[in-house]
Amino acid sequence: MARYRPNPPPPRDGLSASCVVVPKGDWTAALDFFAWRFSFVARSEWAQRFAAGDVVDSEGAVLQSDSVLHTGQRVYYFRDVPAEPAIPFQERILWQDEHLVVVDKPHFLPVIPSGKYVRETLLVRLGQTLGSSTLAPIHRIDRDTAGLVLFSRNPATRDAYARLFRDHVVRKTYHAIARWNPDLPWPIQRHTRIAVGSHFMQQTEVEGVPNALTTIRPLQHNGTFALYELQPVNGQRHQLRVHMNALGLPLLNDGIYPELTAEGSQDFENPLQLLAQSISFTDPLSGELRRFESQLQLRALESLNRPS
What we know:
Mean pLDDT: 92
Order of helices and strands: EHHEEEEHEEHEEEEEHEE
CATH class of the largest domain: Alpha Beta
Distance between the termini: 76 Å
Number of domains: 2
CATH topology of the largest domain: Pseudouridine synthase
Helix content: 10-25%
Pfam families: PseudoU_synth_2
GO molecular function: catalytic activity, acting on RNA; pseudouridine synthase activity; RNA binding
InterPro entries: PsdUridine_synth_cat_dom_sf, PsdUridine_synth_RluA-like_CS, PsdUridine_synth_RsuA/RluA, RluA_PseudoU_synthase
Largest sheet: 11 strands, mixed
Protein name: Pseudouridine synthase
Radius of gyration: 23 Å
Oligomer: single chain
Number of strands: 14
CATH superfamily of the largest domain: Pseudouridine synthase
Low-confidence stretches: none
Strand content: 25-35%
Shape: elongated
Structural class: alpha+beta
CATH architecture of the largest domain: 2-Layer Sandwich
């Protein structure tokens, strides 16, 4: 028996359609099914979506509110996306071929849709720019972090690149600014276990088998602040921020560590001073060594307060 392959409609304005499979039942009107399946959405709103052509079948045919649905049928629908806060910074494509897209992500821009951000995300913006519905991030960085993000544009070769990250054979280098402490034994290898903290937004170091390794070394300092190079081996959530905070060196302008600031209090003038600066690996398809460097920069140490 041939394996079924989903056939979603093309994205609209960079947004992919969601899919629902019709369960057993007598669904003689598509509107009745959607009003039942998504009862948290007003029936009148679903009626408007049907009228706008926002619900289609697996062949791309627009369904009407009175269309008959069948058990096991895949139905695609486009979400109603409310207005979002604009992120006033632009991403930059640094390199691309038929398999990969390498992008410089600005501070504050989420990589993928989440929470209140759907259109204002790197994935959706790139989909619009490149006219592609097959893009997927191979790895992610925090919304607050700027710098390099790699996207796969070819589903057939996606796992070959994702495996590099799973096997920890990608060399990632970050730059960060934090307070300078000359008394610490530089360079430092921080090898600890990171788990969810007391607040779901925060991570913390805990006892147990280490699951996060980061090499940290200062590159330069002005007596008060330092520019650090951080090289993580693992990819635990907030790993670099947690490790620096544990050393008593929270990153400059970090709104999560050591203390969580109120949601929505982002300051576009003072972004987190953390940059995914470079990434290198051996291409699994060509065998070539790939190295990419961000064109973004953190604040100059000379612009920060010096000791009195």
